[in-house]
Batch of 2 targets.
Target 1
Amino acid sequence: MFHIGRLSTVDLEEEITPEESLDYDNSENQLFLEEERRMSHMGFRCLEITRWVICGLIGFLTGLIACMIDIAVEKLAGYKYLAVKQNIEKYTELGGLSISLILWAVLNSAFVMLGSLAVAFLEPIAAGSGIPQIKCFLNGVKIPRVVRLKTLVIKVFGVICSVAGGLAVGKEGPMIHSGAVVAAGVSQGRSTSLKKDFKIFEYFRRDTEKRDFVSAGAAAGVSAAFGAPVGGVLFSLEEGASFWNQLLTWRIFFASMVSTFTLNFFLSIYHGKPGQLSSPGLINFGRFDSDSVQYNLYEIPLFIIMGALGGVLGALFNIINYWLTIFRIRYIHRPCLQVMEAMLVAAVTATVSFAMIYFSNDCQPLGQDNTEEYPLQLFCADGEYNSMATAFFNTPERSVRSLFHNPPGTYNPVTLGVFTLAYFALAVWTYGLTVSAGVFIPSLLIGAAWGRLFGILLSFIIWADPGKYALIGAAAQLGGIVRMTLSLTVILVEATGNVTYGFPIMLVLMTAKIVGDYFIEGLYDVHIKLQSVPFLHWDAPPTSHWLTAREVMSSPVTCFNRVEKVGRIVDVLSNTSTNHNVLIKSKTCLASSRLSQRKLQLKDFRDAYPRFPPIQSIHVSQDERECMMDLTEFMNPTPYTVPQETSLPRVFKLFRALGLRHLVVVDNENRVVGLVTRKDLARYHVGKDGLEELHLAQT
């Protein structure tokens, strides 16, 4: 029950079908070589400077978007919680608190309805965190509409509505997706959605360049969310990018720094403190004081136990969410049903929160140094507030911060235990709804709750600071769900300003990953598999050396001559799902042994990138069908090839390391006998019965 097994047994009614693979390898045809020969040394230097400028723009715009999201959520959530708080206080004295419950549920449902309607009916790809889709894009899979301007607008609007609507979600995943969309748009110097071409950055209109900038955008999103520039770079390296180089590292770090600075600068202006860049990011966990940052050697085994517990709970989260996602794919695939489910979850979240606050008798004194944003008295005595309301009657980020920093005695064990169970169930149900939402903050909140509970129970045996164990629990829970190690360690260290806990956090995350991987994969990998996307991991399956290129390749191969009749080219393209027809659209052919008037250049291909028109939209007359087209200067004369006896791991390593779209397979006489595509490699994995073959979406 703990293994997904062969996904081919899952009968999904709808699959997200990627159009094709991206091509991260340069085609060294005559046009490419001629352009490179014409470019001077100064031209290459200018291109490198332009890359830095683009990364700066990416960071600036990502930080600006993060600032807008933060202000909008703060305002909307503030108005909502203030209205509900005043209503509760009014009806606590008069009776009829059910009206307050209805008001809370209606406000939650209204916000979530707006966000879900936009996602379900306008841009479904904007649902969720967007991290699995960006991982696939950086891996080389072309996911339709994932980096379009429309997706960005719906993503930003959706996450504002989701967080303001009180769902168990966070802003960090959508920020990563938003940064990636910004990068894809800025680096191309135009908007295909708005049909506006600014005639700048034209050289970068190809898959390889766009991939590098999208990596920078994802890192800038992490940096803006957590105030962690180094963590953003490591996240992009560990969790996102499949291809990397040293120069790219510095450019990505620059984009992350600009993103964090931009966010802090504009937030300082908004809060009336220009120049005081104190807020580290969207998710401000606060700084730990000097008394709570120490740990002892005897606590190391306790941290390992917490890591193992986080791995088990994370695996349980992923397993439940896996089956819930299958149920949604089968039965809740209509947009209207998806919106209704999102509204139901919003109403249930408000109801559960209200009920737990109502029945809680955990009252704490309201001191002068109290930092609660919306302290709720309810049935507590004067000068006291309901402690359960601190966890539920707040945005998730503020709740995490209170669990980290509130003094000992703020929460009793029963409150934390009940909250952990309830919020765990709500978070599992929420992730996968048709709304823009992240899983980082809900995971941290669940872990902080049971981590603080662990610290309180431990204090009966030895002295223990609950806030310290809340941080360790948060790391363990998030690591158990997403299985990140190095990047998450640095993100938490930067977000809390606490270098001392670097080693314990890394230890906890490694333990959580090892334990969680025993049961099921990380949450993002689970959703990638559920979408039947041909994602290529770092290495081929370890037991696949007996498979050869001949056995995995696609054949027979459709071939063209160097000089081919236009009619045959049109017929071949019409019978396949390809869209390589720039030559035909430009009517570049040899008619009566005379060349066409204008010679094509790489600029023509870049102008058409990335949305090439379908062959059906190009009219070719009968006379033009008889023309001959010379493909010599457009073809790649030196493609990568492998003998048909090459083992699968060697083919896999070559294909993935070079970012190929296809790999030519030749026989002993160097004749083309097949092509290895991404789908051919991704369908093999190691299962319970050894090497298994998956059925993936057609690409």
Target 2
Amino acid sequence: MKAKDSLDTKKFFENLSGAGKSIGVLTSGGDAQGMNAAVRAVVRMGIYVGAKVYFIHEGYQGMVDGGDNIKEASWESVSSMLQVGGTVIGSARCKDFRTHEGRLRAALNLVQRGITNLCVIGGDGSLTGANLFREEWSGLLDELVQSGQISEEAAQTHSALHIVGMVGSIDNDFCGTDMTIGTDSALHRIIEVVDAIMTTAQSHQRTFVLEVMGRHCGYLALVSALACGADWVLIPEMPPKDGWEEQMCHKLSESRLRGSRLNIIIVAEGATDRHGNPISSNTVKDLVVRCLGFDTRVTILGHVQRGGTPSAFDRILASRMGVEAVLALLEASPGTPACVVSLCGNQAVRLPLMECVQMTQEVQKAMDEKRFEEAVKLRGRSFENNLNTYKLLSHRKIDAELPRSSFNVAVLNVGAPAAGMNAAVRSAVRVGITEGHTLFAVNDGFEGFSKGQIKEIKWGDVGGWTGQGGSLLGTKRTLPAKHIDKIAEQMRIHNINALLVIGGFEAYLGLLELQAARSKHAELCVPMVMVPATVSNNIPGSDLSIGADTALNAITDTCDRIKQSASGTKRRVFIIETMGGYCGYLATVGGLAAGADAAYIYEEPFDIRDLQSNVEHLTEKMKTSIQRGLVLRNENCSENYTTDFIYQLYSEEGKGVFDCRKNVLGHMQQCYYAYIFGHFALLVDFVQYHIFVCFVGRVFANTEDSACLLGMRRRALVFQPVIQLKDETDFVHRIPKEQWWLRLRPLMKILAKYKTSYDVSDSGQLEHIVRLRAKDISAI
């Protein structure tokens, strides 16, 4: 079924005009990957709505100095910057702006150009400075009038300054948003280094101490420790308890006794002990050498973490935030407080800037006063879940400390392999063991289940699984229906009391078939939960699937390389085919991340007239200074308009203006390493709060809610009975009937200079971080 929206229930932005308005965009403070994507989105959205947009080069310093530092931007001036790291408009620390005289000069420079809307991309210091500037604005204008530098009329015309902030910081240290621009890319850099270090560490049986950025926030250290399965992590929010040296050395020694050939310790640069004494990477190295005699090396990543191209996530986040920032400026009134555009779950929200800044400052205050538990909670629910997950997955309890249980849980992968499956299995196994249960690994999906390919899996068996792509358990697309009798027999033989199925659409269908067979097989009356893991992201009941983000990065990286390959040649358009079956998620979101001019998908029907219109549009763009075009096509978007057909059409119609190349990405989208930041807490939630609560007395579960799918919907993780998801599913095309990411398609078209409607029903509501925090804390 094709998705259709009812126009009368939606709010569109056509009535929001930027005519007569001027927007200034600047980047300030430390640079972060993705800042350029945010600048690009602000510029193009601003021009799209009829506003003038100005680059303010070198941050606040450029605003104070004026002159050529403040230049009007054009559509073409932000071309080819989406994939560039850092910030092309420059960033600088500015002492002048901290003075009243400096801000007075900045105000004069803005008024002279008619700029009364500022989009500031930076950290909490940059955003605090912007808010102070706004509060002083009317007073600054009065001073300029009195000194004769501007007229009374000019002061009245520019009487209100509107501020919207976007947080660009690799540290993810700003309260009010789940992720800041640049954090995901920095995590990628760290894990790339860890993967490289692991091979040499194993060769020589070494211990490596990695120091990562984070003077005041341990997010990078914590999540990278989760992602690589580090033996120990030291962060400023939760200093180790007294005696940590002995505990750490004991854990490292125990790991070696179990056969491990390496140890990884990750230290945030701001790590301290409980008494405020700094813990440096060299301090940790000396401790390990002195106490254990291990060959130990230190690697300080430094500014490598800031460098390189932004990840797909950061490009999409920054693009969404940039567009939302322009909408916020268009809707602002003189009384509207300065706001910051944030990410909550999968949704863009607006929060009062100073509420977020104050909450961020409270975290530091709690740390200074040694209220560490409170500091962790103030960081947010995501940070706290990550910390608890790390403790659960990395610190093995001795058998005497484990709770006793007679329950057996089977874990299996079903469907096509997806990056992150192995990390999901590792999480489930270790959490289950920690809870005292016996975990069984099933090889080769339901087919292996029917053949009895089942064996107990222990804590150490899943060591080192986090960074490996594919499925180490083995996975097949076979559905259980034709093997149901044998599967029920294996459930009885091994006394399986619960099932965790990690996989794609076949896993979803498999759970439906197992649930339907319960009336004939009592052995199947056990709790069953599915965790979506597929690059196609086509599972009903969940906005996101494990593996989809990794596939997007593979697509984005490939598109970058393909475009780079044509550098220095004549104008060229690339036609690229992506995977996804009938689901256009990879083509659409990959297109947004790579800066595509068009993305053809099944969910949005198109005909030859649409293709012709796209070719003509691209031809006109190519007559300007733009030299590269990118068109993505989902593999099953049309039976007749194949990749070859589209390639030949563009080649013929573009003669004399551009030439064409085509590329089919294929299964390389499935075979990347697994960078699945954030999914560990998802697995813990699943194991802790659903399956095991069913183990009371004899396990017999045959209600609808005992066979569930765990998915992310908008802002929350929710368990949904698979039987209730049937009405939401297009089984013929193996996609959900409604898909959230379709709302991003107009955004991609706007940034490619197409005239279209953009649904802003979810925009325009200023929320409050206090209310959000109250909900967060009550849910913990």
